[in-house]
Amino acid sequence: MNYFYLVPVASLFALGFAYYFFKKMMKESEGTEQMKTIAKYVREGAMSYLKQQYKVVALVFVILAAFFSVMAYFGLQNNWVPFAFLTGGFFSALAGFFGMKTATYASARTANAAKESLNKGLQVAFRSGAVMGLVVVGLALLDISLWYLILDRFVESAEPGHKLVMITTTMLTFGMGASTQALFARVGGGIYTKAADVGADLVGKVEAGIPEDDPRNPATIADNVGDNVGDVAGMGADLYESYCGSILATAALGASAFVLNPAMQAKAVFAPMIIAAIGVFLSILGIFLVRTSENADMKRLMSALNRGVNVSAILIAVLTFVIFYLLGFENWMGLSFSVISGLLAGIVIGQGTEYFTSHSYRPTRRIAESGKTGPATVIISGMGAGMISTFIPVVTIALAILFSYLCATGFDVRQMMSGENLSMGLYGIGIAAVGMLSTLGITLATDAYGPIADNAGGNAEMCGLGKEVRKRTDALDALGNTTAATGKGFAIGSAALTALALLASYIEEIKIGMLRLGQTVLEFADGRGAVEIGKAGFADFMNYYQVTLMNPKVLVGVFIGSMMAFLFCGLTMNAVGRAAQKMVEEVRRQFREIAGILDGNGKPDYARCVAISTKGAQREMLLPSLLAIIIPIVTGVVLGVPGVMGLLVGGLGSGFVLAVFMANSGGAWDNAKKYIEEGNLGGKGSDVHKATVVGDTVGDPFKDTSGPSLNILIKLMSMVSIVMAGLTVAWSLL
Amino acid sequence: MNYFYLVPVASLFALGFAYYFFKKMMKESEGTEQMKTIAKYVREGAMSYLKQQYKVVALVFVILAAFFSVMAYFGLQNNWVPFAFLTGGFFSALAGFFGMKTATYASARTANAAKESLNKGLQVAFRSGAVMGLVVVGLALLDISLWYLILDRFVESAEPGHKLVMITTTMLTFGMGASTQALFARVGGGIYTKAADVGADLVGKVEAGIPEDDPRNPATIADNVGDNVGDVAGMGADLYESYCGSILATAALGASAFVLNPAMQAKAVFAPMIIAAIGVFLSILGIFLVRTSENADMKRLMSALNRGVNVSAILIAVLTFVIFYLLGFENWMGLSFSVISGLLAGIVIGQGTEYFTSHSYRPTRRIAESGKTGPATVIISGMGAGMISTFIPVVTIALAILFSYLCATGFDVRQMMSGENLSMGLYGIGIAAVGMLSTLGITLATDAYGPIADNAGGNAEMCGLGKEVRKRTDALDALGNTTAATGKGFAIGSAALTALALLASYIEEIKIGMLRLGQTVLEFADGRGAVEIGKAGFADFMNYYQVTLMNPKVLVGVFIGSMMAFLFCGLTMNAVGRAAQKMVEEVRRQFREIAGILDGNGKPDYARCVAISTKGAQREMLLPSLLAIIIPIVTGVVLGVPGVMGLLVGGLGSGFVLAVFMANSGGAWDNAKKYIEEGNLGGKGSDVHKATVVGDTVGDPFKDTSGPSLNILIKLMSMVSIVMAGLTVAWSLL
């Protein structure tokens, strides 16, 4: 229990440093009056969007919380669930809000700093990104600590070992709150930002031939607002969810793996939290390591960033051994190697992403070259490359799953599926996911400073700060893209591992649901007799519910799960398409109707474009997000436990691969276009460039709306199933 | 046994009528000398491609057959396997060959007949399509009959009931031969046709602004050859495979479901064959019903086609009851309803496809409208619509699975997974697939005559037969597209159901493999003791191999299976992209270097374009096709039975949904373009039209290369796993 207090301490440390960096950033000058005004426009637009968004989402939360209260009233859930759910959503929203607030204050300051030097620009942008990273991990550990302390005080259980199972599975409901909030943030923000971006590009760049972020383009403010609500607030909520999800799912697995060993059980529950806490300290250390000499070039900056990330990663790998050893785990070596397999997997996936999406390598260059034969071949080759690129993450995750499982079970290959080993192995998989995300504080900082630099570039362009400044902010943005590839690898890899861990939590919750409804034994028809539920392992439940791959209910579930991934992407893609079309029409109308707009004399109506994106995003985000909540509930009622398990596995398999494909195709198109813009194959304005712009535009919803939302979708479907397990059990007993 | 002779009789009937229709078609005039010459060019190009293709594929077959012989030598398979495998491949190739031969003879004749009237054109094209339909079903039933008679004579088994299990599982290996051949045909043909098509369109239509099939376009002959090798020969091999696969898988399930009831076992094995045989007679009847008055309009023609298809479908539904009743099945009503659920599912999927891809409905019109904002929004909205469209086939197949399963087991919901019910239920699912494909003779005719009409149009264009003739062939083609939608629904739906049935055959083959290696009991660790393998049911094997959704090997298999679908599509998409680029460059070169080519004075070098497509297809088809064979083998060796089951389920879930998405997006883009070409939204040559041409071009590999190959991929992976089951078992015992 004493170890546990590291967690709230780390949380306060993270929040304290976040505040420190925020204050430091605020002391920088925001530059000229014009820069301040533009920044204010963007800030106000972003805040007003967020307010609108939170209103809609709050309504959804109130309805769901009411529903959970009814379930609790009928004994299908415990009474803490509605509250835990609400706090998860609240903290997730808070993380997005703080991150975005910081980003919108930082953009003009970064532009102003970039006037001085590249390094100065990096410092302001990166430290602001660090605020986001530290707020996310700080709030997550705060929420975890508070709920643990509350539930530890109030939850009572007669059976030894059962108390921690109750606590950890209840805490998963705040994971569901976080996931719900994150999905809305990603989908709403993603639609907003891409509608604005696509709209601005299609008319501005392609038709009118004016540069990006040109103040004559009416959609330009909306575009910059979009970067904040989508890439900053959306990503914040998303990673808050991933971080909490992996820790909570692993804690729940720890509670069940050590249910018969009360001495170790608490330690198994705390271990993921402690790894995360140590990760926070290392992240702060890493953030301070990101500094370089005043007149540093790109290469130096890059190595400064890498130094910060790598030092934290290596130290957490080393300290993991110490943590598991000090906690007194018998298999401390094995568990530590599980963590390392997770870390390594994240890095390999990141490198693979880099290879398939950076224009330093062949795949993206080929896409650029296919622009010679027009936009159609750009699309075909980009989709082809994206689909092929899925093999690296899949094979890596496959190896990480097997390796972390075997490490945790002492490489007992013949007996790897015995009851005890299954629990331990799954715990190993969970702990690998925690390892991947343990240094989120700094990896998120490297991810979040990109959009800040991007916005700074927008501000510089609109205020005419000159080419040199714009070039610097572009360089910072590009630098961020490279480190962000690793960050994305960690996010996507951890999602797959966490979703696996959540499968086990689902069974755990089914068990609790059965006990709550008074069922005490599992009776088998085939001569094995009965097993007491309290003593039953995962395998017993699989047998009891016949969750095998021959059960048609499982197979139907798999089909529906696979479909959910595609349906969800289809709905969000269409949403972007529709909203973007409205934006295009509006920008065309303004170019047509407002006199002198293109020679800089007429003033474009920015607010109208902001309103179109806001309205589009709000309207369009509801259906796909609600489907993610409703389909698992319906499947549970109609097809029972086997159907739900099939749904989750099908959604995980298809969703993971589809997410990688969309993210990588999108990234590769983006960079193929940049490759041309750097002067290759005819450069800007050539036909090849136009063809790659089409690819980039198609890639926008791929990589920033549908793709990243899939990670959350996969986990949210699992979380919903877990929270609704009581209903599924009750229904199947009817 | 007497019933069985219906099968060879039906086969001979089908082949006889195919010959009759072929002769009748050959009697038609081929038109002018120029028409004959063009047709000869296309025919020779197609035949020389096919020869080349068969050479490469024969090599693959020889290597695989040698490998199977080695396996047989070491007692890991029986001695019939290499031979069965080879005949499956041979007959599948033969079906493609005959179909293509007919099609290449029919095109000029159809064009010539269309000079006379629409109805005359339909008669020639449709009867030629019927040749293909009847050849496919005739050869399939011939192969099935021959092998059954041979194996019945030579296979010996001490245990009653075991003999038919041995026979049916051995026959599945010729299914693998058919699948392997089909995959090569689809992939090679698909790459060929789309490289030519995309290349011809990109330079001809978009850049030079000359119409489709214009003789000035050097790629135009290659394009017409492509229609034959891809859409005709590829489709023939594909559906031969689907047809055999569903019958053989169901027969194998019948043998195992009734293993303890020798009186009914033979009947359960024959039932799918007999349904197919009856379907052949009904198809021939239906083909004769497709006739109308001489001066019929489109609507009349449509209703003539529909009459043929509907009458056969309704009659087979009715006769199924009679068949099962006469065979003496206790649950004849239930099994018949299983068949009907399959038939209905095929129709619903077809209707759904029609809704999402025809420009009479909103989704496709919206895609056309999104062309107003350029090609990027066309791509985004087309992909969105395609992804959303997956929900109809998935929900339909889900219902068909549950319903056919429950019908076959007498709606015993509580006990649906008991040993006996599981076997019966799976048999029901298989029989639903057979029902779907039972009238393939006529549905394939309606599918195959489309490309013939398309080619006739090409011939008419190149020979300058005038707008009226071209209009008629276009009308025939469009008519074919509508009926083909239903055909595609049947193909894709039956693939999903057959793949499910093959899962069960895999377990059956594992059982045989264990027995062959001397293992006689399944020993369970958890106190259930041992079960004799001879008496063990599917559920016992699932327990023994721990094929549950918590087994990390299963989950890793699911990931890899999902990835396979994407990787395969990526490779084939890229192949088309690369080959098309080469074609574009060649066409551009010819336009540049051959003097007077565009004003009709210079003669384009058609042969060179044909050679480029041939070479591209041959080189590019190997990797994706071989992966489909190698990955299941490797998975079996590394991850054992649970890994393979995961692989198959993951591949099935993702592959099915991905296939629907790609087929429907591609179809919708095609028709969105046609909608514009009919004069809407600015018509031909407008910017909107150009934008939709980009969509159409991207859609080409979607709907004609990658999408349709996925159906085969799913089944081939299952077939490979089944044939390799002995190796997997032997390896796991090491």
Automatic annotation (TrEMBL), chains A, B:
Q: Does the keyword NAD apply?
A: no
Q: Which residues are listed under the site Determinant of potassium dependence?
A: 484
Pfam families assigned to the protein according to its UniProt record, in alphabetical order? H_PPase
* Keywords of the record: Cell membrane, Hydrolase, Ion transport, Magnesium, Membrane, Potassium, Sodium, Sodium transport, Translocase, Transmembrane, Transmembrane helix, Transport
Tell me the GO BP annotations in alphabetical order: sodium ion transport
Tell me where it resides: Cell membrane; Endomembrane system
Annotated control of activity: Requires K(+) for maximal activity.
Which cofactors are named for this entry?
A: Mg(2+)
Membrane-crossing ranges are 6-22, 56-74, 80-103, 124-150, 162-184, 243-263, 269-290, 311-329, 378-406, 426-445, 489-507, 554-576, 621-639, 645-664, 712-733
Mode of membrane association: Multi-pass membrane protein
Enzyme Commission numbers on file: 7.2.3.1
Which NCBIfam families did the record assign? PRK00733.2-2, PRK00733.3-5, V_PPase
The family database entries (HAMAP family) matched by this protein are listed as: PPase_energized_pump
As for family, the record states: Belongs to the H(+)-translocating pyrophosphatase (TC 3.A.10) family. K(+)-stimulated subfamily.
Question: What is known about what this protein does?
Answer: Sodium pump that utilizes the energy of pyrophosphate hydrolysis as the driving force for Na(+) movement across the membrane.
Q: Which protein are we looking at?
A: Putative K(+)-stimulated pyrophosphate-energized sodium pump
